[in-house]
Amino acid sequence: MKIQTDYKQNLSILTHVLGWALFGLVIFILSPLSAGVERPIAFWIKQSLNFSLLILIFYTNYFYLIPKVLFKNKIPLFLFVNLIAGMGCILLLIAFDDWTNMQELMHKAYRPDIPYKPKPRNYYWDISQLLVFFMVIGISTSVAAVQKWQIDEALRLEQNRQQIDSELNYLKAQINPHFFFNTLNNIYSLTNIDIEKSKSALLKLSRMMRYVLYETEKSNTLLSKEIDFVMDFVELMKIRLSSKVNLTISIPEKYQDAPVAPMLLLPYIENCFKHGISSQQVSNIYIGIEISNHTLILETKNSIFHSKDRTPEGKDSGIGLQNTKRRLDLLYDKKYVLQIDSENEEKTYHVLLKIDLQ
């Protein structure tokens, strides 16, 4: 990272040096020489002074006025200071012309056979030079603005990446404590009833733990692994379900694998079990996953119960769903559609999520 930063810094410095060298060569050396007239030494001193003033005004703006004045929303002050600086540079060049008697020297260079007669100063060249100064100010402002936008954009992307990581870590922590603790208790109870079933449950739990520990460290995992993780979760939840829960699962056996962000599906499926099960009434849960034309479709439906009818597991907040929605915004932006309907005649909580995996 340090080598890359040093390379970019050296490249930026080289770009500035080459840019100024090309600008000075064309405007201040080749352009006067193209007239085919031998200019006096004072003229070349003035050209050097002019070029130095342009560099000075460029970097004064770039390093001081733009970040400390313009970017602080002090626009009138920024314009006033640059106007005064431009006028000051022009007055300095005029004073240099008067001191060196530049008008007479240039007359002798272009018309050596004609006697010199003083004439009023032609301010056309001074106005042109002032416009050049303002052009340099505009270029320095544009360069600084573009670099600030690039830095701000890089900072925004880094903040988004850190936020995605923190939200994913929250989701990982969210399923760890209560889910694993309760599942282990259920598996322990199973050992007295069905040894083989308890072994199978332990295997599913170990696969889930391995997924949470290792796969979620990556930015993407395989869709097949995400679905296996979801299926293990559902199978373990079945151990705790009573006969009053009607669970319907629709997941294809064969589908086209694709990369997907880890743990995007679990919060919506977990929500069905946390908020869609009653200890007193019949509960209905539907979980469907479909992959069609590189589009992942998740659909869940669960009964809606009042808080007093829910099981203790259903009393948690819905922060996980909010974080998942935020992750979808950050990771997939306009490549997903999320529809949630909780006000319908069936009195069900309906989630339909479509993600373009291309």
From TrEMBL:
UniProt cross-references to InterPro entries, sorted A to Z: Bact_2-comp_sensor_kinase, HATPase_C_sf, Sig_transdc_His_kin_internal
Organism lineage string: Bacteria, Pseudomonadati, Bacteroidota, Cytophagia, Cytophagales
Keywords: Kinase, Membrane, Transferase, Transmembrane, Transmembrane helix
Source organism of the structure: Belliella filtrata
Span of domain Signal transduction histidine kinase internal region: 167-244
One Pfam family here: His_kinase
Transmembrane segments: 12-35, 41-65, 77-96, 127-146
Protein name, entry field: Histidine kinase
Gene Ontology terms for molecular function: kinase activity
Domain of life: Bacteria
